[in-house]
Amino acid sequence: MNFTRRAALMTSAAIAASVADPFRAFAQQTPRKGGVFVVHYGAEQRQLNPSLQASTGVYIISGKIMEPLVDLDAAGNPVGVLATSWESTPDGKTITFKLRQGVTWHDGKPFTSADVQFTAMEMWKKILNYGSTLQLFLTAVDTPDPHTAVFRYERPMPLNLLLRALPDLGYISPRHLYEGKGDIRQNPVNLAPIGTGPFKFVSYERGQHVIAERHDGYWKGPANLDRIIWRVITDRAAAAAQMEAGQLHYSPFSGLTISDMARLGKDPRFVVSTKGNEGNARTNTLEFNFRRKELADIKVRQAIAHAINVPFFIENFLGDFAKLGTGPIPSVSTDFYPGANTPQYPYDKAKAVRLLDEAGLRPGAGGTRLTLRLLPAPWGEDISLWATFIQQSLGEVGIRVEVVRNDGGGFLKSVYADHAFDLATGWHQYRNDPAVSTTVWYRSGQPAGAPWTNQWGWKDDVIDKVIDDAATEVDPVKRKALYADFVTKANAALPLWMPIEQIFVTTITAKARNHSNTPRWGSSSWHDLWLAE
Amino acid sequence: MRVLSLAGRRLAASIPTLFLILIGVFLLLQFAPGDTVDAMMAQMGGGDAKTAEDLRRFYGLDLSVSAQLASYLWRLVRFDLGFSAIYGKPVATVIAERLPATILLMTASLSFAFFFGLILGVVAARGVNKWPDTLISTVGLIFYATPSFWFGLMAIVVFSIYLQWLPAGGLSDITSTATGIWAVLDTARHLVLPTLTLGLIFLAIYLRIMRASMLEVLNLDFVRTARSKGLDETRIITRHVLRNALLPMVTLIGLQAGTMLGGSVVVESVFSLPGLGRLAYESVVQRDLNTLLGIIFVSALLVITVNFIVDLIYARLDPRITTGA
């Protein structure tokens, strides 16, 4: 697990070389019909309905079976799927979607605006994680005819926000299989999804595999593949071995170890790339608990940031798959990225020491100024490495760090419910618009126990107001300016720090064609994917 | 049948133990930070506080610990294992789905370890302190000392990636549509590497025990008598020594049936097999109390059954156990 700069450069060369072929040269070939595509499924979920649960573990399967109103095209712009067009009234309180005609569910029933109404009101607004926040002010969905759905909001809903949120938070479920069938969460259809997508659900053996087959009545025309099989493999090293043995074609969302991805990137049989995952950006965080009086001092937080050599860490531990972050909005978000011209904290050990001295934290016995508990989240080896790096970096400026490792449930409870931490580190998932899952990390008033929200014991009225204004600002230009202001203020106040930007890595067989061609390809429908001989 | 009443009494004695274990595990899991809703939030990438509250009510986590425990035990008395939070179906169904793979893997590797442990142990005992003994003991020690995940991964690298003889994981080839005998052979092929990986560790123990027990029995008086009767050495070994030397081996099987159930988490993960070990691991991480307690309950039943069978075998091997006090 120590790959050097040279190895990293070689990897990038290998990626560049292998990427060039499948993305361009083969685009001209005639797609081959047939074939079975086998996908690595690392973390089984409790259910598979994306109208009820927004996570990549659901999209990777049900994104082929069910469809959203809107998806993103190759350039990252909204493109209609089950919706064909949309418009908003100038006040932003009424948004009208025209729906695609002639679409049927896999069981033969027609898809209509009643499905949209039911899904939005009963699933997105009431159950779907992040959906319930997004649709908080949704009051009704009117259905003047079977192919028109009118969303009515109590407060202005920026059309751009809705369109960027809907690819993830806009999957439609069949009303006739849910309405009047008891508790939506317990409906058996959640584990045997019925949708309008290019593939039909066949079977799900828990702990083993999920199978879907081509739906010949798909509205865009039948897909190229015969079947898709998702194989449950929890061990990352075993998954890499199965890729090499040819038992797997695709491992999505950084499903292999960093060293295996770097190794397979040099193998001509595979394509290893971040392309096709731009819609799934994340940043590594360092979260501060203001209930520790030392950490409530901005100088101590700044000192901690200055004491950590982030470029060194990225170059030596994460390689090509990460880059220096500049704040809560990552650079892949072209619509909102404010540039790097906001307060930053470059590595400067002397400055860190000076700031700690100024804060009155003098070295005590053994040179220790302060002892802190750091809780790393257990999802990903990069977090674990980053926690160790923080520990060692802070040790050099006299801050002793105890790393306390928990499993997933334990981590969330300790940090976001019990506030039993001094420092915490994990991922912030950016979902194409800062209002979806980014500003909650900074907005005050989050109830204790809500994971990945502002639980720092910190409140800033000015930042709260910018966040609220931006969430209901209908003018895209003003909205972008408000978010730039938000990033500047957030970086200056530093309630948490987001110094590393990452995009998920795809490992896929070089035989695959038409892959990674949209920013959320892993989650998308794969109707044009095919396998060359 | 005295042996049956003996075993029956043991069976009755194990029921209170079973309840104590279940209550202990239930309370232990209450000390772990976070509940199944936290674990679910971790898995789905977040949600708001109202969602979490709804889910807690949905899973019955808003009740007090004692109320939860009481309702669990009351259901258990009626043979209802409850509902699994992760899988959204009854725990009994979830376990029934996983049981075949576990039992298949367990019996295959136990038989492998027992059979080869027996043979190698006898060979080593007959040539004690000569080269076969040294060789067998050294190899056994290497197997015993090697971690099973490393063994598994190396086996995959050699046999699946380089030689491409055997599949790297799974229980069967889902891309094929084989039926009947071909499907059985396919599963057998998939089980070769996991069986060897799991079995080799146990093999080392069995051969050591067998060797020691053979050496002990070989020095007993009745063996000398048999030899002085003029019986040939092979007949002495098979008819007289082996039967008496087998008792510790049988004891070991009874003890290890339990270990095998839990100890196969690593092998199941490396070879992506849908077994009980992985299910138990996932239910701990996901804080799925019902499933975990269900697994413990079923494992305990399995261990009790195996021990019951072991008791019967004892009687068959050594008739004194039936007649003695």
- Summed up, the helix count of chain A is 15
Structural class of chain A: alpha+beta
Task: Please give the radius of gyration of chain B in angstroms.
Answer: 24 Å
Percent of residues in β-strands of chain B: under 5%
Average per-residue pLDDT of chain A, rounded, comes to: 91
Oligomer: heterodimer
Span of the ends, CA to CA of chain B:
13 Å
Q: Please tell me how large the radius of gyration of chain A is.
A: 24 Å
Please state roughly what percent of the residues of chain A sit in beta strands, choosing from under 5%, 5-15%, 15-25%, 25-35%, 35-45% or over 45%. Answer: 15-25%
Give a short account of the largest sheet of chain A.
7 strands, mixed
Tell me the overall shape of chain A: globular
Q: Name the average pLDDT of chain B.
A: 83
The description of the largest β-sheet of chain B is: none
Number of strands of chain A: 22
Taken from the alpha-carbon principal axes, the silhouette of chain B is: globular
How far is the N terminus from the C terminus of chain A? 35 Å
* Count of distinct strands of chain B: 0
Give the class of chain B from helix and strand content and strand pairing: mainly alpha
Poorly predicted runs of chain A are: 1-26
Helix content of chain A: 25-40%
Largest interface: A-B, 64 and 56 residues
Indicate the topology:
The complex is a heterodimer of chains A (533) and B (325).
Chain A: H1 5-23, E1 36-41, H2 56-62, E2 70-72, E3 78-80, E4 83-88, E5 94-99, H3 113-124, H4 131-134, E6 138-145, E7 148-153, H5 159-169, E8 199-205, E9 209-214, E10 227-232, H6 236-244, E11 250-251, H7 258-264, E12 270-273, E13 281-288, H8 298-306, H9 310-318, E14 322-324, H10 349-358, E15 370-376, H11 381-395, E16 399-403, H12 408-417, E17 423-425, E18 427-430, H13 434-437, H14 461-472, H15 476-493, E19 496-503, E20 506-509, E21 512-513, E22 530-531
Parallel strand pairs in A: 1-10, 15-16, 15-17
Antiparallel strand pairs in A: 2-3, 4-5, 5-7, 6-7, 8-9, 9-10, 11-20, 12-20, 13-17, 13-18, 13-19, 14-19, 21-22
Helix pairs in contact in A: 8-10, 14-15
Chain B: H1 2-31, H2 36-44, H3 49-58, H4 65-77, H5 91-126, H6 131-145, H7 148-162, H8 180-218, H9 221-229, H10 233-263, H11 265-270, H12 276-285, H13 289-317, H14 320-323
